[in-house]
Specification:
135 residues, Herpes Virus-1, 3-stranded antiparallel sheet, 7% strand, zinc ion binding, ubl conjugation pathway, zinc-finger
Length: 135
């Protein structure tokens, strides 16, 4: 390969590198625009969540706002951690399975291992409390 061919190839690569840099700048701008749009949607979601707060944030066992929400991996229902763990332990002491307390749910065997902390829901509940304290 001749020196001029190598020089031509390097020039082409530098041109491609500049085009890639421009493309990355465009992608970054689009990503930032999407992030801003997502923030606006989150604000709208919070407004909707405030409207539906009793439905979204109320534990089906205690009928009060959840403090430490957990999500059941099997049926996707939410409960306050202390309430559902208490129910599971009570049913275990009776040698019985724990049914999901949500009316109409077919999950007849709720286990502690099926429960995962729902940090997103917890943050939404805390955010609603802060917003309610401001007004």
């Amino acid at each position: 390969m001749s020196l001029s061919a190598v020089h031509g190839t390097l020039t082409s690569l530098k041109s491609c590198q500049a085009d890639i840099g421009t493309g990355m700048d465009i992608v970054t701008d689009v990503a930032m625009d999407l992030a801003e749009s997502a923030e606006n949607l989150e604000e709208l979601d919070e407004d909707i969540a405030v409207t539906l707060s009793q439905v979204n944030f109320t534990c089906p066992l205690t009928q009060v706002e959840m403090v430490n929400p957990v999500k059941n991996k099997k049926c996707n229902h939410h409960y306050d951690e202390g309430a559902i763990l208490g129910l599971i332990k009570t049913r275990q002491s009776q040698k019985k399975k724990c049914r999901c307390p949500v009316v109409g749910c077919g999950n007849a065997d709720v286990r502690e291992s099926d429960l995962i902390p729902d940090q997103m829901l917890r943050r939404k509940i805390q955010s609603q409390k802060r917003n309610n304290n401001r007004t």
